[in-house]
Design brief:
InterPro entries: Phage_lambda_TipM. It comes from Pseudomonas khavaziana. By secondary structure, this protein is mainly β. The chain has one helix at residues 54-67, and strands at 17-20, 22-26, 32-36, 42-53, 73-76, 82-86, 90-96, 99-108. The radius of gyration is 18 Å and the shape is elongated.
Length: 112
């Protein structure tokens, strides 16, 4: 089974978060030793907002529902190469006049 590609473009200026997973040990004399935790210790998270008519938002919702928060999909974050992401949930908002807003957070995923 191939990995699906998320192709919809979010509203401009998304703000992502990049974190490094670390292990550390503190010692009584104030010394602290720190090391990277695992081979994929850098992760990204992107809260995104999509705005459009009912058909566009329903297509995005269908894509996210198909993956159900568990199956990873391919998406290209700003300043990054295509990578795997998961979306655990989303928030649809009717804006009136046939327009809708959909907010979702994409969290980077890794395959073993």
């Amino acid at each position: 089974m191939s990995t699906e590609i998320f192709t919809w473009v979010p509203k401009v200026e998304p703000v992502g978060s990049v974190e490094f997973r670390l292990k550390s040990a503190k010692f009584g004399d104030g010394y602290q030793q720190t090391a990277a935790d695992g081979i994929n210790n850098k992760t990204q998270s992107w809260p995104l907002t999509f705005v459009g008519d009912e058909a566009r938002i329903k297509a995005i919702v269908a894509f996210l529902d198909r993956h159900a928060g568990a199956k990873a999909f391919s998406w290209t974050a700003p300043l990054a190469e295509p990578a795997l992401y998961r979306c655990k949930g989303y928030q649809p908002t009717p804006m009136g006049a046939g327009l809708y807003s959909l907010t979702a957070t994409f969290e980077q995923a890794f395959h073993p």
